[in-house]
Amino acid sequence: MPASVRFSVLLAALAAVASGAAAQTTTLTFAPSDEVFPNPERGFYAHREVQAEGTPLSVADLTSLRSASVTLVLRIYYFKSFRSSPLSQAQLDLIQDDMDALREAGAKALLRFAYSQNETQPDAPLDVVLGHIEQLTPLFEANADVIAAVQAGFIGAWGEWYYSSNGLNTTPARRDVTEALLDALPADRFVQIRTPYYKRAIFDRSEPITEAEAYGDSDWARVGQHNDCFLASADDYGTFLSQADRDLAAADTRFAPSGGETCAVNPPRSECASALAELATYHYSYLNKDYNTSVLSTWIRAQPECMTEVRRRLGYRLALTGGEVTTAARPGAAFHLSLDVDNEGWAAPFNPRPVEVLLRNAATGARYVARLADDPRFWEAGQTARLDAEVGLPADLPAGDYEVLLHLPDGRASLYGRPRFAVRLANDGVWEDSTGYNRLGATLVVSASGPGESYTGGLVFQPYAPPTDAVDEPSGDLGLGAPFPNPTVGVASIPFTTAAAGPVRLSVYDTLGRRVATLVDGAQPPGAHVARVDAAAWASGVYVVRLEGGGAVESRAFVVGR
Length: 562
Prior knowledge:
Helix 4 links the parallel strand 4 (108-114) and strand 5 (147-151). The strands form four sheets. Strands 1, 10, 11, 12, 13, 14, 15, 16, 17 and 18 form a ten-stranded mixed beta sheet that branches. The chain has an eight-stranded parallel β-barrel with strand order 2-3-4-5-6-7-8-9, surrounded by five helices. The protein is α/β, with parallel strands linked by helices. The longest helix is centred in the first third of the chain and has 18 residues, at 126-143. Helices cover 22% and strands 30% of the residues. The protein has ten helices and 25 strands. The protein has three domains: 3-36 and 318-463, Immunoglobulin-like (Sandwich); 43-313, Glycosidases (TIM Barrel, Alpha-Beta Barrel); 478-560, Macroglobulin (MG2) domain (Immunoglobulin-like), CATH 2.60.40.
């Protein structure tokens, strides 16, 4: 804020105090952006499948994808080597390595597990499938932060539930697999099923998810859809067997994730006009960029702007259109913020995500945060959400100029401090890449002589403090490797590196934030190191390794028990 403007604001504040007026406010305006940019859990995804005990995901590949605005990967694991046996530790380690790579690169996965890649290959018996899901449960718990959703899989070719050499293409078997996955996943993560018919048959219900049920812990509300033959025929190769299927998919996907891939050129239905209409009708959050490229190419050739629109509107696209904010107040007074947020995308965010308003001192950088009650998962496609908050300023808030920021971080504490997992708004000049904050272009002037009556409500700005298990962005001065083996039932090795000599602390915490072990606490020379922890006597569950040194922090999760 220029000095002359700030002086005018201060004069107005003094006049407001003298007259008993309320805190001073100003109207906010925002410029829309047409830019295509990366945001979590939406957009075109990359297809990356792997055979048992194969090569893990590459951080370099994932980083390159992100530079092209791709933040989702469909990771399909083919368990051909385990059709009659438990998953090996090497297979479990591969999955954990993939999760670590996703976390480091700022990406998330859609997961699917299968035993066959064509109609002639066998799948596995039901008891083996359920045993594998049980083995995967600790990995789901430890890595839910980078799991966007899990596709039901396991049965038949490509895990798509149609073929089965073991008789699993029945409603009872499909129900068993679905229920096992829902039990294995944390309650805030979705399972996706291949067709609406399968969902209707499993649950014996045709009514869609209601708004009251949405994002609750009922099995019905936790099941979304993936259509892997989008636009390929009149019924999308069996995806929609009736109008009831279409009605369910259109209504359900207001509150559950939807996505898939094209699989065959089918003009005119596979062309741009119908594609745009159906992506909107079924609230698509994601689409395969790698298949079917012949279909995707027709969108580009016939109407180049079509592909740009798809890239912009898959999933959510949140843009500020206006608002009002307090610009001058005294400590202890009320701060008011109202914002209009348009969702220009085809879907709402489907995993939990808080909404925070921050005040950042322009001189010192000190931050104060208030978490609002609003839930972005209800910011539906094509609608405008209104954020209307009144927050108390702390009575001891230092005088100064404070930038006003909006923060939509990941709902998992482990990703809270990572900007690449925060939501960027579709407005010019608001995004702050280094923090993941959206600048509102407003400054609050706080002074002892400022206007405003005393705030008496229950929501007050608090000094910024990340969650106890939050993970900061890697600093470059420290490097924390993945614990091995992970999960572990005994001794685990934890590699770490230091760029310079100095004091380092390496600790392990449980999910309640209690330190359960200190592995290193003292000066370390520069270079590579390995610490070991004996967890044989620990309770089964998820633990967090935390490396601190030189003002930098890195953390990783690992699992004790099978």
